[in-house]
Input
Amino acid sequence: SPQSVAKAAATHLSVQLLEVFKPNGYEGTDQNATESYQKEDRIMEEQTTKGRAEFDSLAKVQTNPEAETFSKLVEENQELRNQLEEQRRLVIDLSADRDEKQREIDRLKFFIERIENDRKPLENELEESERKRTVCKQVIAKYLRLLQELHNKEKKAMIANQSVRLGQLIYKRIGSQFKHVWEDGDELIQLKSQLEEIIKEKEGLEKIRRSKKSRRIIKEAINPNNSLDKEAVDTLFDFSNSIELSRSLSKIEETEEKEFLTLKISMKQKEETRLRERLELIKKEKIVLSQEMKRQNDELNSTLCGKKSQEKFKILNDQYLILSLLGKGGYSEVYKGYDLENCREVALK
Output
């Protein structure tokens, strides 16, 4: 009957659409798919032609409603065939796109495998370089520790020698508190003593020169008749305790004695200048020595370099080697360190 033919055609189209919408089940090339589709079209065309012939033969005895129904089914069949053809073209395009993407995937996989093969030697080389870098850091830290220990010993020996020469800081009770007080060394005490002696000798020479000058004033004040005027008498009494009135000197002797005193005072003045310059230099050395003594005392009580520290030369953050204390304030400590990564000296607060 026409209904059975239309039903068979619709069932066939549904099966074809289900196969179209299952791309994962498709295997083969685009050419094979096209040939398969053409074969199915021919079979469907033959079935449709046969169904139309049967319908024409039966149309004469069938009623008009059945003919209209079959005509609608034929139109729907044609529409489904058009949709099927469109879906087939879409499947062909998708298949071509899928093949292109598959080739791109294969190419990328090849590059990935190549990169992986190149990565393994690089990783081994990186591990070897990392191992060598660690060994180098350990060796550098070891020799820096030894060098710093030698440097500390040299500083302690220098301070011991300079303490005898320049002095040292001692704790002394001042009132109710104990404070650091500087005690002068042998050289500083001797230098101050020499300076005091030079100053005393120079003052003595100045007094003698002034006394010689007063003697001349007295001689000039005495007139030939052995009489003195009032001013001369006052002058005489002012200097009578230090001058011998009975002695008379010639002008030549006075000149020679004056030159001798002037020369001697000049020599003492130069000696005093030299001693003062030497004393200033020693005072500067004393300041440096006192600062170093204070720094060493602070270092003994510091957090990272002191007696209570667990490790003497500690490495912070696996990079910074602590060597010594540079200074200490009210809130923090500043250390001299070495950057093992960049190989440079740094200050660490």
